[in-house]
Specification:
By secondary structure, this protein is α+β, with helices and mostly antiparallel strands. The chain has helices at 2-8, 16-52, 74-82, 88-95, 99-103, 159-164, 503-511, 519-555, and strands at residues 106-111, 123-126, 138-142, 145-151, 167-175, 179-184, 190-192, 204-209, 213-218, 227-228, 244-247, 252-258, 267-276, 283-290, 296-302, 307-317, 320-322, 328-333, 354-355, 358-362, 372-380, 386-387, 398-407, 413-415, 418-420, 428-432, 437-439, 444-446, 450-452, 457-466, 486-491, 493-498. Helix 2 runs antiparallel to helix 8 (519-555).
């Protein structure tokens, strides 16, 4: 249009009126395109906030996080490690990861199916118990800090993730003790391929230590000079008797020697010789005593080891040394009374103690341990008392949980009823606590401890009511089992009840599998749009300026 008017203007001066009309239209168009440019620029500014301050999920953190709220860089991990107010260093030391190995972490990703399902798979650690021992969960007591490790693939609950696994952002590293490991960015939890080797079991042995006697020690404290507990070389030196033997107690005896002196002979002393078994046995002890008492001489001797002993006495006189069969005697040291609970110990040993609740066992016997079997069932009362684990829980359903403890050991045991309801109460409320006490902060329902005899069992029950409206909260980022449409609950065994989540929940899970688009892609699109709008605005402005120049040339008669 512009080209047509300009080319015909010299032949038809009347077209100058249409040129003026065209100039007004270009001015309006310029105003419109300027407004579009301003709005596009404002939209680009708003979109930039999504890049520099991205939104956070409403369920981005969980009490199971080792570092609450997660981490972004290696420095975040090291700050938690160096913070004495946290237990993160204690957990890393237990797992076998050093600070230098944490400092070498690199940003990357891991997949729950990277090493398959079963032996060698990724193990994720956390502060909350979500699964049962039968599913591979292991409890770790780290000097009072309780953490749980479980296979990472247990969190794969969707058809797609069950087949292909879930991918997580992580800081990946290597440890000299446990090999490959990673730190989850969403929660700061450590992920390992293997579990740390538990400390060796302490083994106690009874040995003979020369100069000390029979002692019970840790197997690792055994010395090269230690001998078997019944070794002869461990018997303490002692004296024996002649003529008359008086026993004060089992190990303490008094030997009285008599000598007859006549025809002016004198007595200068005695030699008491104690041998093992008989006159040909090894000398146990030799005692020399100087005395001029011609009537008798006594020696008090203590022998700890049981057995037969031979004692002989030589009288030293002015006529020479004198001895005879009357100056020799054999006697017995009875063995110590055995411990009724462990025949390898004596009755007087500090280790001779019965098993609490079962006096037929030694207190260190392998059977003298509490063995409690904990089991749990769930029934959907609303849907015909059906098994809750095979029934889809709907809004307002009532579900009854039954906890049972049974003493399967050989001694009296104390059982604890404690129920972690953190995952259950995301979709339900407690309707009947069954006489238990509910801790609102820890989300734990507990009852008083009970003492069970061997073979005895007891049960506790409570009821929860599903919420009238099932929440549409998205699945947790740091704790995938949070708001995942499954109520997980562990008491010995794991109870998993699927929840009938509303359609928006399903749509959100389906969309999560689509190709990822984020602030970066949006910024690129907005940049292209801004370039296009700027071009058309500049073009309108340029055409308006050209029309002004043409009208000026027409007025001066140049055209």
């Amino acid at each position: 249009m512009f080209r047509k008017l300009v080319s015909n203007l010299s032949f038809s001066p009347a077209l100058v009126g249409q040129l003026g009309f065209y100039a007004k239209r270009l001015k309006k168009e310029e105003v419109t395109r300027r407004a579009g440019l301003i709005l596009t620029a404002l939209a680009l500014v708003v979109q930039s906030f999504a890049v520099f301050s991205p939104p956070e999920s409403a369920n981005a953190a969980n009490s199971s996080d080792m570092i609450y709220g997660g981490v972004t860089t290696t420095d975040d991990v090291l700050r938690s490690y160096d913070n004495s107010a946290t237990d993160y260093k204690k957990i890393m030391d237990y797992a076998g990861v050093t600070r230098a190995e944490l400092a070498n972490l690199k940003s990357g990703t891991i997949n729950s199916k990277e090493y398959g399902t079963g032996s060698g798979t990724w193990l994720t650690w956390g502060r909350s118990s979500r699964f049962s021992e039968a599913q591979g969960q292991v409890t770790h007591d780290i000097n009072g800090t309780i953490v749980y490790s479980k296979p990472l693939w247990l969190y794969d609950t969707l058809a797609y993730t069950i087949k292909y696994g879930s991918t997580y952002d992580a800081l990946v590293g290597y440890s000299a003790k446990i090999g490959n490991f990673a730190i989850m960015k969403n929660c700061g939890n450590i992920i390992t391929r293997v579990l740390p080797t538990p400390p060796p079991k302490i083994s106690y042995v009874t040995v003979c230590r020369p100069g000390t006697g029979v002692i019970t020690i840790n197997e690792s404290e055994r010395l090269a000079t230690d001998q078997p507990s019944n070794s002869t070389g461990c018997q303490p030196a002692s004296a024996c008797n002649l003529a008359v033997v008086d026993k004060i107690d089992r190990t303490h005896i008094v030997i009285t020697a008599h000598t007859a002196i006549d025809r002016g002979a004198t007595l200068s002393g005695y030699t008491f010789t104690i041998k093992k078994n008989d006159s040909n046995g090894a000398v146990i002890k030799e005692i020399k005593q100087d005395t001029t008492n011609i009537d008798y001489s006594t020696q008090s001797i203590e022998l700890a080891a049981a057995g037969t002993y031979y004692v002989s006495v030589v009288a030293h006189t002015s006529l020479g040394d004198r001895t005879s069969t009357a100056c020799a005697q054999t006697f017995e040291i009875a063995p110590p009374e055995k411990c009724a609970y462990n025949p390898d110990l004596v009755k007087t040993s500090s280790e001779c103690q019965p098993c609490p609740g079962n006096t037929s066992l030694w207190y260190k016997d392998s059977d003298c341990t509490e063995k409690i079997l904990s089991t749990k069932t769930a029934t959907n009362l609303t849907q015909g008392n059906s098994l809750a684990t095979t029934t889809l829980a709907a809004a307002a359903d009532r579900i009854e949980y039954k906890l049972t403890v049974e003493n399967i050991g050989k001694t009296v045991a104390t059982a604890t009823f404690k129920e972690d309801l953190g995952d259950v109460l995301e979709y339900a409320t407690i309707q009947d606590n069954g006489g238990g006490v509910y801790d609102q902060t820890a989300k734990v329902l507990s009852w008083s401890d009970v003492v069970l005899k061997p073979g005895e069992k007891q049960s506790r029950s409570f009821t929860v009511s599903m919420l009238g409206t099932i929440p549409t909260m998205p699945r947790g980022q740091s704790e995938p089992s949070s708001y995942d449409c499954v109520m997980n609950n562990v008491f010995g065994n794991n109870i998993q009840i699927k929840v009938d989540c509303p359609t928006p929940k399903v749509v959100e899970q389906t969309v999560s599998q689509l190709p990822k688009t984020g602030p970066t892609e949006n910024m690129l699109f907005a940049g292209v749009l801004l370039s296009v709008v700027t071009f058309f605005y500049a073009r309108s402005k340029q055409l308006g300026k050209e029309v002004k120049l043409i009208r000026k040339d027409f007025s001066t008669g140049t055209i």
